[in-house]
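Design request, tokens follow.
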């Protein structure tokens, strides 16, 4: 019922910037929160950032001060502005949404992920 599509990943030099986008579509009553996770090779999925419907944001310590999450509610799109990128930021970044549909109340939905590679 809810589809999430990420875009904006790619290869960037250390210290560079990327902006990820995640657009939600489908049949849903509301999206209560959206966020970003990442998974590096050989590591568990890690929470990165989240934003709620009232605009409140939270960040993992590893990205605080470098990443900024924002949301365009009219477009059902969440963004992740990533600055001062480090090689350890290399991962597949996935978008997550907590949404309510006609069948489920505040359930998690995931995008397919977009690859971010930070390398010199």
């Amino acid at each position: 019922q809810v589809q999430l599509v990420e875009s904006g990943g790619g290869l960037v030099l250390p210290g560079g910037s990327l902006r990820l986008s995640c657009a939600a579509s489908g049949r849903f009553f509301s999206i209560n929160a959206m966020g970003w996770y990442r998974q590096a090779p050989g590591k568990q999925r890690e929470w990165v950032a989240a934003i709620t419907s009232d605009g409140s944001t939270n960040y993992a310590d590893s990205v605080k001060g470098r990443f900024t999450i924002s949301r365009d509610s009219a477009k059902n799109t969440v963004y992740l502005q990533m600055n001062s990128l480090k090689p350890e930021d290399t991962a597949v970044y996935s978008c997550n949404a907590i949404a309510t549909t006609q069948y489920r109340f505040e359930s998690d939905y995931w995008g397919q992920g977009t690859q971010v590679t930070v390398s010199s």
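Comment from the thread starter after seeing the answer: thanks! The mean pLDDT is 95.
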